[in-house]
Amino acid sequence: MKNWISRPAEVEAKVLEWQKRFPELLDVETITQYVGTKVYGLAITDKKAPRAGKKVLLATQPHAHEPATTAAMMSVTCQLLEGRLLDGTPTKLDRERILRQVVFNCVPLGNPDGSSRAPVEYWDGSYCNNEEFWCWMRGKDRKTGKMWKRLGRWSTRVETDHPERIGIVYEQLNEHEYAEPNRCLDSSFFRMALRLNEKHGCDQWLDLHQTEFEKSQYNCMIILPLVQKELPPHIQAYNLKWGEEVVEAMRREGGNPIPKVEPLNYTGEQAAYFRDLWGPLEDRIPVITSEIQNNNPRTSPDMQRRLEEACLRVSLERLLH
Predict the structure, then answer these.
(1) Hey, is 91 helix, strand or coil?
(2) Contact, 65 vs 118, CB < 8 A?
(3) DSSP element (H, E) containing 154
(4) How much of the chain is helix, strand and coil, in % rounded to 5?
(5) 8-115+187-317 in CATH: which number?
(6) Which of 7, 46, 10 is nearest to 26 (CA)?
(7) Distance, CA of 89 to CA of 260 (rounded, Å)
(8) Residues 67/68/71/76 CA torsion (nearest 10 deg)
(9) Within 10 Å of residue 83's Cβ, how many Cβ atoms?
């Protein structure tokens, strides 16, 4: 498909090609996962332009079952480095100004281990329904035949009833342990994101996701941090304004976004993961999360990518001065 790269081998090949062609614009970091696949962290900017005053956007993708997020970051990276989309269409980004004034850090494929186990390149509703999709995501419970439970980090030594086919959301950490990347600091995703943050700083963190919007009239939204109302007032205001700008860009792109930008509504154990892992980051860095419809013919893969790109485009351009 045009303008779409999401498979680990394709991502790796393209990143290594860009690294050779654009040393003046691109730095590359790597972390090798337990199974041998590599997570890449990219830092894109005009190295000849003074570093002082440059703002930094960090964009990340933790979930292997949400490939449009990878496709969007690879497309935007191509536009910044080559001045065109992957299909050769000229970019509409203010490329030179962005490269002079912004550092674009991204982790385009946070869990290639999981992605390499996906049966399809993208999810458009034609391969399976959502019940089956969720079983691909987290594995099928042997007793119920439905999606297995959600865990941040777990071991086959403890969870002896684990699915025979491990869900593609998980990264294998060692012989026995698995983790959902955005819920475990030992995941390659988090290690790479925090490495980029430490090395380059971060003025905005955009975490890219997809969800099914089952039985919803909407197909995209922006979510504020779970701890939004507890954050310093200036970060609360920044997150809200940024989120509203992205929602308007989604609408202009042809999406049907949830109009109101609100905090993550998890409770209980799921909320605890985000409070413990993301809370300390969100207290000092503006963070928002995109959600674009997945596995539904109502939102084609091309539209999935375009909506994620809209999130990236607004996030880059609002850092210009």
Answers:
(1) coil
(2) yes
(3) strand 153-155
(4) 35, 20, 45
(5) 3.40.630.10
(6) 46
(7) 33
(8) -140
(9) 12
Token reading at 261: 């930008």
- Structural tokens at position 253: 């792109």
Contact criterion met (CB below 8 Å) for 301 and 82: no
Which residue type occupies 27?
D
- Name the nearest CA neighbour of 187 among 34, 67, 30, 290: 34
CA distance 128 to 125: 6
How does pLDDT run across 272-312, given as a tens digit for each residue?
A: 989 999 999 999 999 999 999 999 999 999 999 999 999 99
131-188 pLDDT, tens digit each = 999 999 999 999 999 999 999 999 999 999 999 999 999 999 999 999 999 999 999 9
- Contact status, residue 316 vs residue 260, Cβ threshold 8 Å: no
| CA pair distance 18, 35, nearest whole angstrom | 25
Look at phi and psi of residue 299 and say left if phi exceeds 0, alpha if psi is from -120 to 50, else beta.
beta
Are 67 and 116 in contact by the 8 Å Cβ rule? The answer is: no
Residue for token pair 């292997």: 64
d(CA 209, CA 187): 17
Residue entry with tokens 């030992």: 186
Give the residue among 81, 51, 274, 286 at the shortest CA–CA distance from 183.
274
**Closest alpha carbon to 137 in 167, 182, 170, 176:** 167
Where do the domains of the chain lie? Answer: 8-115+187-317
In tens, the pLDDT along 218-238 reads: 999 999 999 999 999 999 999
CA dist., res. 98 & res. 157, Å (int): 49
